[in-house]
Amino acid sequence: MPQDLCVNAIGVEMRFASGQLGVRDANLAVSHGELISMVGPSGCGKSTLLRMIAGLMLPTGGELKVSVATSPFPLGEGGRRPGEGRQAIDVAREFSTRHQRSAREKTKTPLVPHPSPLPGGEGIATGDPRVAFVFQDSNLLPWRSVFDNIRLPLELRGVSFAEQQVAVNNSLQLVGLKPDDAVKRPRMLSGGMRMRVSLARALVTHPELLLLDEPFAALDDLLRQQLNEELLRIWTEQRWTGIFVTHNVSEAVFLSQRVLVMSNSPGTLVADIAVPFEHPRNVELRSTLEFAKLTGEVSRCLREAAQ
Amino acid sequence: MNRVVKVALPPAVLFVLVIAAWHYVVMGFGIKAFLVPKPSGVLQAAVENCSELLTAIGLTAGAALCGFVSSLLIGSLTACVFSQSRMIRSSCYPYAIFLQTVPIVAVAPIIVVWFGAGFHSIVLVSFMISLFPIVTNVTAGMLAVDPDLLDLFRLYRGTRWQVLWKLRLPHSVPFLVAGARTSSGMAVVGAIVGEFFAGNLAERHGLGYMILQGTQFSTAKLFAAVIASTLLGIAIFGASTLIGSSVLSRWSDPKGSGHSGG
């Protein structure tokens, strides 16, 4: 695996317990610091591929390598699992799953591919310290305040409260939330605000690889464009590697350096379209002729893929 | 204020009408007092036996609360264990249902045979009858956790303990509240049934024993004890509903009231 690749998938396949093929022969190479988008018709397997990259599902075939450094947050003295997370920050970790399939995996149903919700399971990398995931639903704990929601990943990792506070405040600021929002409960927030909280929670761990699964799909168009710009601004500042799954072509083109098109059942990647626009990008870009041409081309690919 | 009147007035009027009907039916048909006492007779019996009645209410309330609180604790704990393993769940669940369907009146004498008469046996009967709704509700709540939230905990390597403590348990709180509402009423029934069999101790006794005594000596006293048990049941049910809804106001689901924008 070349040194500069963050994600490298070769012929990755996901066959559900029902025998149905969710993802077939997916080849994907994402360099460190790259922000790419995956578009495809609904149910084509793009979320499944993303979940495999996150380590939430185990591929049933092919080779999938994810290379990220370990967490910058060392565990405290009283923290659990001593030793872990204490490796040098830039030591790259690799996990590889080649044609592995645990016995438990075989009994899984397609709707809930991992009924064993708990960490562990042979060969499954259940979440690397520096991989973060933004779900389609904001996925917040309703009984926790915004602050307590954002600090959850650090809390689970045993980071001290003082460090949590600093990290949460930075994260809040980064996604454009005010300090007084921290005490609010999720139900008091609008959909867009909840998504910002969800993004802040993902960013609080300083991820090296950020996986976004249609995060803005439920928002209205104006809000979506606004959050697209904010996300791009954060990426420009931090330069993590990002994989953004969406079915909105204009969003995909605006955000990413490459747009991958996935075809329908069973899902496989059929096109890889470079987006040559310079960074930083702003909202003006959306009204240029080049932008329209490119979205047109991606849309055409998407139509072909859906057939 | 107007709303309170609207809610409270109809049942209050009905109450007065029923009491009046009761009075005139007993008077008109010349029903003997040992069959159905007049409302005034019941009130008189209650006043005459005031201290005995209050002691009885206190004892029964104490037993019911002990049974209820221990069913909350043991029930939640059992649900925690059930949530951890499908095998434990499927092997124990039939027996939990058995525990619920076997008539408590039939079990109470067995408990007295095993543990003797007294307060602890009364609490045990009350506990047994109020346990089941807690176990089923909390188990359901723990298993109904959104799979995406479980994925979130997996992603950040939450341990089994963290998933239980920080996700499943808080998520099951609304379910616990619903179960507690059912259980609280049943705990009072359990305490009174328990007193039928295990309450004949010393001079201090609860409402159940007073009801038994009333059947032999004074129907008016019996009626007073029955009404007191009903009021006690309503009070405990009301209190647990009130506490429950104040707890629930924290827990309401953000998805339900969700709206996008700004």
Give a written overview of the molecule.
The complex is a heterodimer of chains A (307) and B (262). Helix content of chain A is 30%, strand content 22%. By secondary structure, chain A is an alpha/beta fold. Chain A has a six-stranded mixed β-sheet, sandwiched between helices. In chain A, strands 2-1-4-5 form a four-stranded antiparallel β-sheet, covered by helices on one side. Chain B has helices spanning 2-29, 39-48, 50-84, 86-101, 104-115, 119-143, 147-155, 160-171, 173-198, 207-216, 219-251. The longest helix of chain B is centred in the first third of the chain and has 35 residues, at 50-84. Chain B has a domain at 52-146 and 173-209 and 225-247: Orthogonal Bundle (MetI-like fold). Chain B is built from eleven helices and no strands. The A-B interface holds A 51, 54-56, 80, 112, 114, 117-119, 126-127, 129, 131-133, 135, 137-143, 152-153, 155-157, 185-187, 189-194, 205, 218-220, 223 and B 145-160, 162-163, 166-167, 170-171, 173, 250-255, 257-262.
Give the topology.
The complex is a heterodimer of chains A (307) and B (262).
Chain A: E1 5-15, E2 21-31, E3 35-39, H1 46-54, E4 61-69, E5 92-98, H2 103-106, E6 131-134, H3 146-150, H4 152-156, H5 161-174, H6 191-203, E7 209-213, H7 221-238, E8 241-246, H8 249-255, E9 258-262, E10 269-274, H9 289-306
Parallel strand pairs in A: 3-8, 3-9, 6-7, 7-8
Antiparallel strand pairs in A: 1-2, 1-4, 4-5, 9-10
Helix pairs in contact in A: 5-6, 8-9
Chain B: H1 2-29, H2 39-48, H3 50-84, H4 86-101, H5 104-115, H6 119-143, H7 147-155, H8 160-171, H9 173-198, H10 207-216, H11 219-251
